[in-house]
Design brief:
By secondary structure, this protein is mainly α. It has a domain of about 40 residues. The chain is built from three helices and two strands, in the order αααββ. It has a two-stranded antiparallel ribbon with strand order 1-2. A hairpin with a 2-residue loop joins β1 and β2. About 0% of the residues are buried.
Length: about 100
């Protein structure tokens, strides 16, 4: 068997799950066994002639120039707030960290 009780208990401790209920522990053990058998079955597949694939889509994305499309609107945004809340173009906020 691929999963013994000791490995299952260690995994349960690491995952912080309780295996006190026998039916739950048996189900987890069976599920893990099935998963590991499936992984072993997949590992048996001959992939020596399969090309390495970096991505499932071979198309390249269109790119655009990195150009500024908006002007600086700082002064317009700050015109509606009181002067006590901004200075030299910066927003003034209360100190929250001492």
């Amino acid at each position: 068997m691929l999963v013994d009780k000791k490995k299952l208990e260690k995994l349960a401790h690491t995952a912080k799950i309780s295996l006190e209920e026998k039916a739950f522990a048996d189900r987890i053990e069976a599920d893990l066994h099935n998963i590991l058998e499936f992984v072993a079955e997949i590992n048996e597949v001959d992939t020596s002639e399969v090309d390495v694939m970096e991505h499932s889509q071979s198309e390249t994305l269109r790119t655009r120039d990195d150009a500024v499309t908006e002007s600086n609107l700082r002064e317009e945004m700050q015109k509606d707030i009181p002067d006590s809340y901004h200075a030299d173009g910066l927003y003034l906020v209360p100190k929250v960290v001492e």
